[in-house]
Design a protein that fits this description.
The protein has 409 residues and is an alpha+beta fold. 47% of the residues lie in helices and 20% in strands. It has a six-stranded antiparallel β-sheet, sandwiched between helices. The radius of gyration is 39 Å and the shape is rod-shaped.
């Protein structure tokens, strides 16, 4: 905001203005206050706000000097925080006392505005050295408050003999009130930005911790898988060897999931298509001759909380199909994950092998693999269903998508 040219008809009373000229002078003060209000809504710089306030107040009272005195509680004194007309080194550095023996201290401590039209003859207060140094002959002081909290004092000083009037005081007080509201707005905005910055910092720190935890879990699971491999090599019982192989494969799958999460850009969600494609690539690497695996997966985001049970379920279903679906051990297994109704996915794993055995009932199956499949399906929020694909077997699970992790409060 810059508007230094006052109307030529606006003449202050101390300069001999008549009634019409004084009216124009008061209207000019109202205009300056309104312009500053618009400026205060646009700026987010407290320093610039205060400096502009001193410039406009000096202009409104036809004076060269104006300053904002901010109270420093720890020091018990004021600092000239912003100002116009003062010598170099005053603004931002000069300090004055806050006791009631000075005009600025009295205005701050009591909340009462002060007009001193004859500082040289003033008996109520001492004249601050700063004013004497600059030849100030009269001053006017009003309190600046932020939502009831005392911020400091707005002061206009003049080296020209004359008088500040009650109307001048009304202008300066209304201006100080507006400035207090603007400062409160700035304080709230700065507090909000600081709070948001702390929140962003906390979230970033949480993501780092999540990645680190996932990385450590992956390494720990890889160690467990290695120990299971060592036990398998030492075991002589074929049934125990198969059980250890299955356990090792399941632990390895969980470790691979955590490795994927650790390397992901987003720790809360994961791209389902990319995730399943990477998992199936690892399953293909362990498949036997003539065993193929094809996929069709919707590119949706799911919460990482669903990644582990979904990966274990897919791993269990594909591994079982490779083991038992085809007599000759050769054949294709197909995985599809498609969106059904909004917020739901349907997982289908099917083969064209020998099909389900007669009288098959998943709920009464005793094998660990079938129990694990049922448990994982329920964990994902669905009801596992086994179907005769004619030829082959089809597994179907429809489950809700969890797009963000569940917060534990």
């Amino acid at each position: 905001m810059r508007n230094d040219q006052a109307s030529t008809a606006a003449v202050a009373p101390e300069l001999g203005g008549n009634t019409a000229e004084e009216l124009a002078y008061r209207l000019r003060q109202q205009e300056l206050t309104a312009e500053f209000g618009r400026y205060a809504l646009r700026t987010h710089d407290t320093g610039a706000l205060l400096q502009e306030a001193t410039r406009v107040c000096a202009l409104g009272l036809h004076s060269r000097f104006c300053k904002v005195m901010k109270y420093l509680p720890k020091e018990g004194q004021f600092i000239v925080q912003a100002g116009v007309g003062w010598k170099s080194g005053v603004v931002g550095q000069a300090r004055t006392g806050a006791d009631t023996e000075s005009p600025v201290g009295y205005a701050f401590q009591t909340g009462e505005p002060i007009i001193s039209n004859h500082l040289a003859e003033e008996t109520r207060f001492r004249t601050p050295a700063l004013l004497v140094e600059h030849g100030i002959k009269r001053a006017i002081n009003v309190l600046i408050q932020e939502d009831g909290r005392r911020y400091g004092v707005l002061e206009v000083d003049s080296p020209v003999p004359g008088r500040f009037t009650a109307a001048d005081l009304a202008f300066l007080q209304s201006f100080a009130n507006l400035l207090g509201v603007a400062l409160e707005r700035q304080r709230v905005e700065e507090a909000r930005q600081e709070s948001e910055a702390r929140l962003q910092e906390a979230m970033a720190h949480q993501e780092v911790l999540t990645r680190e935890i996932s990385h450590r879990v992956k390494n720990s699971l890889a160690m467990v898988a290695g120990l299971l491999g060592m036990q398998r090599r030492a075991a002589a019982d074929p049934a125990l060897q198969r059980a250890l192989d299955d356990a090792r494969a399941r632990v390895t799958t969980i470790a691979q999931v955590h490795d994927r999460l650790w390397r992901a850009d987003e720790v809360h969600t994961i791209n389902l298509a990319e995730f399943v494609d990477e998992l199936c690539g690892q399953l293909r690497a362990t498949a036997g001759p003539g065993q193929t695996l094809s996929t069709e997966v919707a590119p949706v985001l799911v919460a990482t909380d669903q990644a582990v049970p979904l990966a274990l379920l897919v791993n269990e279903l594909v591994t079982n199909a490779f083991k038992y679906a085809y007599d000759a051990g050769e054949g294709d297994v197909r995985i599809t994950i498609r969106s059904t109704e909004p917020g739901h996915l349907r997982l289908t794993v099917c083969d064209e092998g020998q099909g389900l055995p007669p009288g098959f009932a998943a709920e009464s199956a005793k094998s660990l693999g079938m129990k694990l499949i049922a448990s994982l399906g329920h964990q994902l929020g669905g009801q596992p269903e086994w179907q005769d694909a004619d030829p082959g077997t089809r597994f179907v699970l429809e489950f809700p998508v969890q797009e963000r992790p569940t917060l534990q409060l």
